[in-house]
C-alpha cells in the first residue's frame, strides 16, 4: 500500500476566500492544529502578496523545526521565488512552490506569450529555485484544460531542470473523475520513465462538486500526493476537503491501495477551529465535518442503529473526533429510540403504563418542536417526575 502525502493549503488557497483573512496569531494557531492533524506539507501562504503574508510564513517556518514540510507559493518570477526562499529558509524542511499556467487560455490570454516562452520561463524559475533549495514543486496551473502534449513537454522540462514534485491542478474544477484518472495515469506512466523519484501531485477545485472524487480517482491512478483544505474552503466553490479525502481512503484502503498519515481524530477540532477563526460556517450536511454528519433522525434508521451501529454508520464518529453520534428524535422515531435516549434519566421502577404517559408527552413535544435533542428529553423526563410528585 502506498502512503499518500497530504499538503494542506488552508492558509494559502483557503485564505483567499473573501472575508476569511486571518491575523498572525490566528494563522499560527491553525498551523499548530494542522501539525496535530499530521499533515505532511503545510502551505503557509503567498509571501509576495503582502508584507503580512511574508511575515506569517516566516514565523510559521521559524516555529516548525519538526513536523510538516513548510512551503509557500511563488509565481515563476525571481522576486516571488526570493520572497518564498526568504520566508521559509528557517524551516527544517523547506519547499519552494512555483506556479505557471499551461492551458492555451493562460498562455495566450493571461500572459499573451508563446508556449515556448512560457516553457522557458518555467524552466528558468525551477533552475533558479534549485539554486536556493533542493526541494521544488512545479504546478502546471489549469492542467486539466491544457493540451496534453504541451502539458507533458512542460512536465518533462521542469523535471529535467530539477523539480522534485509536479502538481497537476484542476484549477477551475473542470475535470471529471474518469477523464482526470486517465490523465494522471498517463502522466504517471511517462514520469516513471523520466525520473521515478519525482512526486506526482494533484490539486482539485470544487466548481461542480467533484473535487473529492477527482482527488480520490487521482490517488487510485497513481498520484503520490494530494492538496486539500479544511472544510474544503478555497477560491470560489473551494478545494478538495481534506477530511473527505482522508476519510474516503481510511474507509476503503484496499480500493485505493493507499492510506494517509492523517490523525483523523483531530478532524473535528481542526474543522471547528478553521470555521471559527475564518468566520466561515460549515454546511450542516457537509460530509464528515457538518453538524448533521452523524445525526440520525429517521425512525427506521434509529431503530437499526440501536440494534447495530453498522446498519447505518460507515464512519465511526469517534474516529474523526466527534464525541458521540447524536440521535435527533422526531415524532416518527418510535418507542424504542425514545426509550434508548431517555433511559439514562428514568428511575428504575418505571412501570409500562407510566412509560406510555412519558411517551405520549414526548409525541406531543415532538409534534410542536419537530426535532428533539437529548437536553429536551432530560427536561421532559424531569417534567414528568415533577408532575407525578
Ligand atoms: O488552483 C490552482 O491552480 C492553484 C495552484 C497555485 C496550485 O492554487
Ligand atoms: Zn487552487
Automatic annotation (TrEMBL):
Keywords: Acyltransferase, Amino-acid biosynthesis, Branched-chain amino acid biosynthesis, Cytoplasm, Leucine biosynthesis, Manganese, Metal-binding, Transferase. The chain holds residues 1 to 389 of 518 of the full protein. It is an enzyme of class 2 (transferase). Mn(2+) binds at residues 13, 203, 205, 239. GO terms for biological process: L-leucine biosynthetic process. Catalyzes the condensation of the acetyl group of acetyl-CoA with 3-methyl-2-oxobutanoate (2-ketoisovalerate) to form 3-carboxy-3-hydroxy-4-methylpentanoate (2-isopropylmalate). The keyword Transferase applies. GO terms for molecular function: 2-isopropylmalate synthase activity; acetyl-CoA C-acetyltransferase activity; manganese ion binding. It catalyses: 3-methyl-2-oxobutanoate + acetyl-CoA + H2O = (2S)-2-isopropylmalate + CoA + H(+). GO terms for cellular component: cytoplasm. The lineage of its organism: Bacteria, Bacillati, Bacillota, Negativicutes, Selenomonadales. Belongs to the alpha-IPM synthase/homocitrate synthase family. LeuA type 1 subfamily. Homodimer. Residues 4-268 form the Pyruvate carboxyltransferase domain. Its cofactor is Mn(2+). Pathway: Amino-acid biosynthesis; L-leucine biosynthesis; L-leucine from 3-methyl-2-oxobutanoate: step 1/4. Its EC number is 2.3.3.13. This is 2-isopropylmalate synthase. The keyword Transmembrane helix does not apply.
Amino acid at each position: 500500500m502506498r502512503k499518500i502525502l497530504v499538503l494542506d493549503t488552508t492558509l494559502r488557497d483557503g485564505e483567499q476566500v473573501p472575508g476569511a483573512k486571518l491575523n498572525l496569531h490566528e494563522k499560527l494557531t491553525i498551523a499548530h492544529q494542522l501539525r496535530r492533524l499530521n499533515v505532511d506539507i503545510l502551505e503557509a501562504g503567498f509571501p509576495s502578496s503582502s508584507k503580512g503574508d511574508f511575515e506569517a510564513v516566516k514565523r510559521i517556518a521559524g516555529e516548525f523545526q519538526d513536523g510538516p514540510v513548510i512551503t509557500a507559493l511563488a509565481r515563476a518570477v525571481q522576486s516571488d521565488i526570493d520572497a518564498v526562499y526568504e520566508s521559509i529558509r528557517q524551516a527544517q524542511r523547506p519547499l519552494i512552490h512555483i506556479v505557471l499556467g499551461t492551458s492555451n487560455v493562460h498562455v495566450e490570454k493571461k500572459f499573451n506569450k508563446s508556449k515556448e516562452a512560457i516553457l522557458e520561463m518555467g524552466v528558468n524559475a525551477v533552475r533558479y529555485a534549485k539554486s536556493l533549495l533542493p526541494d521544488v514543486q512545479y504546478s502546471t496551473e489549469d492542467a486539466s484544460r491544457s493540451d496534453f502534449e504541451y502539458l507533458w513537454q512542460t512536465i518533462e522540462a521542469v523535471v529535467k531542470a530539477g523539480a522534485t514534485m509536479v502538481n497537476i491542478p484542476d484549477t477551475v474544477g473542470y475535470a471529471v473523475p474518469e477523464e482526470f484518472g486517465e490523465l494522471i495515469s498517463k502522466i504517471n506512466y511517462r514520469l516513471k520513465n523520466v525520473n521515478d523519484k519525482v512526486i506526482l501531485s494533484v490539486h482539485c477545485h470544487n466548481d461542480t462538486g467533484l473535487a473529492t472524487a477527482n482527488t480520490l480517482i487521482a490517488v487510485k491512478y497513481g498520484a503520490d500526493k494530494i492538496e486539500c483544505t479544511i472544510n474544503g474552503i478555497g477560491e470560489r466553490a473551494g478545494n478538495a476537503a481534506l477530511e473527505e479525502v482522508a476519510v474516503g481512503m481510511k474507509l476503503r484502503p484496499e480500493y485505493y491501495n493507499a492510506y494517509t498519515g492523517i490523525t483523523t481524530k483531530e478532524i473535528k477540532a481542526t474543522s471547528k477551529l478553521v470555521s471559527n477563526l475564518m468566520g466561515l460556517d460549515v454546511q450542516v450536511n457537509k460530509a464528515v465535518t457538518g453538524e448533521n454528519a452523524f445525526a440520525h433522525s429517521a425512525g427506521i434508521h434509529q431503530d437499526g442503529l440501536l440494534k447495530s451501529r453498522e446498519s447505518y454508520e460507515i464512519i465511526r464518529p469517534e474516529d474523526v473526533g466527534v464525541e458521540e453520534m447524536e440521535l435527533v428524535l422526531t415524532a416518527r422515531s418510535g418507542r424504542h429510540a425514545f426509550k434508548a435516549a431517555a433511559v439514562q434519566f428514568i428511575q428504575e421502577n418505571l412501570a409500562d403504563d407510566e412509560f406510555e404517559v412519558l411517551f405520549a408527552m414526548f409525541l406531543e413535544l415532538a409534534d410542536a418542536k419537530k426535532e428533539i435533542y437529548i437536553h429536551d428529553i432530560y427536561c421532559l423526563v424531569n417534567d414528568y417526575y415533577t408532575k407525578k410528585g
